[in-house]
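Everyone, carefully examine this protein record:
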Amino acid sequence: MKAVGLYKYLPIEHEESLIDLEMEKPKPQGRDLLVEVKAISVNPVDTKVRAPKEQEEEAAKILGWDASGIVVECGPDCTDFKPGDEVYYAGSITRQGSYSEFQLVDERITGRKPANLSFPEAAALPLTAITAYEGLFDRMGIDPDDRSRNQQKSVLIIGGAGGVGSIAVQLAKWAGLHVIATASRDETVKWVKELGADAVINHHRPMKKQIEDLSIADPDYIFCLNNTDLHWEGMSEIIKPQGTVCSIVENKEPLDLNLLKNKSAAFVWEFMFTRAMFETEDMDQQQVLLNRISKLIEEGALKTTVNETLSPINADNLKKAHKKIESGKTIGKIVLQDF
């Protein structure tokens, strides 16, 4: 089968940073599905895993944690899918990724592809939808079905135009929250407003003053999708007493949790690979989550966040996608289709 992988961790400009490969098609075991990959999307985690380091791989490392495709074979313990089913998923960071014609993925973290989306449109969704859904509803404890209560609450989404932000804005609005998103360019401001943001501020400027200038109360929830270190003091300053801050971006410097103490505010992490990595008891909730996202897409409550599509899936196009992700200026998702 065709695949794109690496042996060395190199700058994306290096010709061997990502290479085209021929590999043996894997065989499903246990609850694995063997999926014929039709489309993939690229996320910041792809570039972080590929980032330069001394480590070298004896066997090719396949990146990629977003895909849509067709089930072609099921492991002996599978109960939820059958050959021919159209699926979408983000997979597990502990296994080979989606930059390949065929991929093994546990059925417990696999969802039914939205029937009204193409494979590329569906491939844009899994990782960001899982991250946004878990961050808002599992980690920060917002009840997505209690819209009457949520209408009295607000959430600030820092980095609203990125991959996760683009779906988080929609999910938060669907759940009834007042949504404040951050964006710093005319095109990203336009993007988040079209997705449903009620107000937009610039995360490159002091957030407290902008909130005050808009006569908006301090947010009950803050979802940080951009540079936790840079925004920590600003988030601590504006989070509502007894509110919750959730981040998906690892810190490089120690975070002063004392800044949250007087407000009795909470801080939580969201890492969408946790359930698959540790095979938690509720691992199958990612299947439930993805199926709910499919239903919302089919009902028109949410829309895909594709902003660019490349074809075919090969090393050259993946290098282009990685470069764009590393620029920090992407809007929505970059998708690749067809090997």
Remarks:
- The first helix runs from residue 44 to 50.
- The longest strand covers residues 32-42.
- Residues 46 and 64 are 6 Å apart (CA to CA).
- The chain has two domains: 2-125+274-337, 139-269.
